[in-house]
Amino acid sequence: MRCRLSSPPRAPTPTRNNFPGTSNAAAAGGLTPKKESFAMIIVMQAEATQPELDRVVARVESLGLRPHVIVGTERTVVAVVGDERDASQSGLATLPGVASVMPILAPYKVASREVQPEPTVVTAGPLAVGGPSIGVIAGPCSVESREQIVETAKAVKAAGATGLRGGAFKPRTSPYSFQGMKEKGLELLAEARAETGLAVVTEVVAPEDVPLVARYADVLQVGARNMQNYRLLEAVGRTSTPVLLKRGPAATVEELLLAAEYILDAGNRQVMLCERGIRTFESHTRFTLPLATVPWLHARTHLPVVVDPSHGTGHANLIESMAAASVAAGADGLIVEVHPDPKCATSDAAQTIDLPAFTRMMEVCRRVAAAVGRTM
């Protein structure tokens, strides 16, 4: 495949993110104290009827709080979030069909296993992440041409991937770097999906782009740079399209869960968390890939966990080993950068593997998956 580099029009300057304040107002000096987040779980009886559940939801809403109904395999619960109020006299515990009312102790409410003990399985066409089978998303960092994306899609599907990644909108550190093919790139991803049946996973970088990207994508990716772009999180949360949320390079795991909470609280329950490495003092890899994150998250949240060994290492020769280690650590999915000719890639060439290397990686990971009781 011949390298074809183009000079696309320079992308418009991104807008600044308006992050909510994090400090509490002082009680003294005439300032109004900030209300703390209030959250509790209303556990419904096993035999509770739909009218009884509807009455509980109506009562919660009458208190000015937000109910999130979560139907599990063994029980239905109503997670209640909002501004703190005196709910002790609200009579929620005595409503027909209610088994118990208890507080949610975790700072992340809807994402907590206190609310939903059963793991969430996120599905998008053939891609399923969170069940017994490990979902694999593979493809180039950037969509460059029809030939490139279709060739990659056919090869990764043959090797066992069920999702196709590819960037159409690319947030880059330098304003002079390739910014992506924009809507043309989305159209090419849709063509590759039509030829292969793979689910399309692509990044959205701005709230105003969400409707456009959601028309083409099966999964909306929120990149590491945008993990705390709260307006974007709310925008993808208002869609019904599954979301892959990447951890920021300087974010704690609790901050990642609170970012996911924005999406969940807006109404979208199809959220995958992605560990893609954090910035540390080490320089032998692009980032440090902390795989202890995977079991830690599984113990605290019902959301599935995907690992990105491409960004997590930055070196193509390390991806196979770290992908296998991710599977051994319990990852529910992998997202890997793959290109027919990595040295010609317009972005992230050093961390991109070629098609034969991806096939070998999948063979190794399948053996590891079988050893830990999973499939790929």
Description of the molecule:
The protein has 376 residues and is an alpha/beta fold. The protein folds into two domains: 37-103, Alpha-Beta Plaits (2-Layer Sandwich), CATH 3.30.70.1140; 122-371, TIM Barrel. 29% of the residues lie in helices and 18% in strands. It contains ten helices and 14 strands. The chain has helices at 50-62, 146-159, 183-196, 210-216, 230-237, 253-265, 293-300, 309-313, 319-329, 355-371, and strands at 37-44, 66-71, 76-83, 98-103, 122-124, 127-129, 135-139, 163-165, 199-203, 219-222, 243-246, 271-275, 305-307, 333-337. It has an eight-stranded parallel β-barrel, surrounded by seven helices. A four-stranded antiparallel beta sheet has the order 2-3-1-4, covered by helices on one side. α7 links the parallel β12 (271-275) and β13. The radius of gyration is 22 Å and the shape is globular. Residues 4-36 have low confidence and may be disordered.
The secondary structure category is alpha/beta
What is the number of domains?
2
Helix content: 25-40%
Query: In what order do the strands lie side by side in the largest sheet?
Result: 7-8-9-10-11-12-13-14
